[in-house]
Amino acid sequence: MTQHIGIVACSAEGAALCYRTICVEGGRLLGPHAHPEVSMHSHSLADYIACLERKDMSGVAELMLSSADKLAGSGADFLICPDNTIHQAMSHVAPRAPRPWLHIADVVAAEATERAYRRVGLVGTRWLVDSEVYPEKLVRCNLACIQPTPVERDEIDRIIMDELVYGVVRPEAVAYFQGVFERMGRQGCEAMILGCTEIPLLMDDANSPLPTLDSTRLLARAALTRAVSGDVGQHG
Q: 77 and 111 share a domain?
């Protein structure tokens, strides 16, 4: 008997990729066409953005907890959130969460450690890159977190919010990310954290100058492993 995965969704493309990964790769652990039970709930992305714009992490947390309560009511045994940015609110969410959570940055940090990296780059929304979501998790694993320049952060944020969240992938955007990754590689980065769940629509190991840490698929695979093992772990 596998555990029931609850997905607290935020942006559609990232949540869809996470869900699809769980379903497609479930067969690796459970047999052809098999995957754990999965439920997903999402409030409007606009509601999340409104909270982020006014730095209202309590508001973000209330949206996440509303989804979490609905998913717990549907039978979910544990929860994941395939959105890096809103993990800023986890300190508000964890004490009141109705079910245990897998934290996306914990999953990525564990993978970086497994691959023996020491300096990793981080790209994502401006809210995510300016936050402590990844630095506080990486430092516990003795990993240095290198961030893009302010100009690069602004353009990456524009690409994410104006293009990727709508499923739009442009060659110009790929080229821009490649240029940023190359520069950060010269700065000493050994791998790049794709710290927005939509970035894997654009970048992967096939077109990246540096190895990638795909937060979306890593979270989905960790959820699969937990669902099969039955390890409920800790909140947050």
A: no
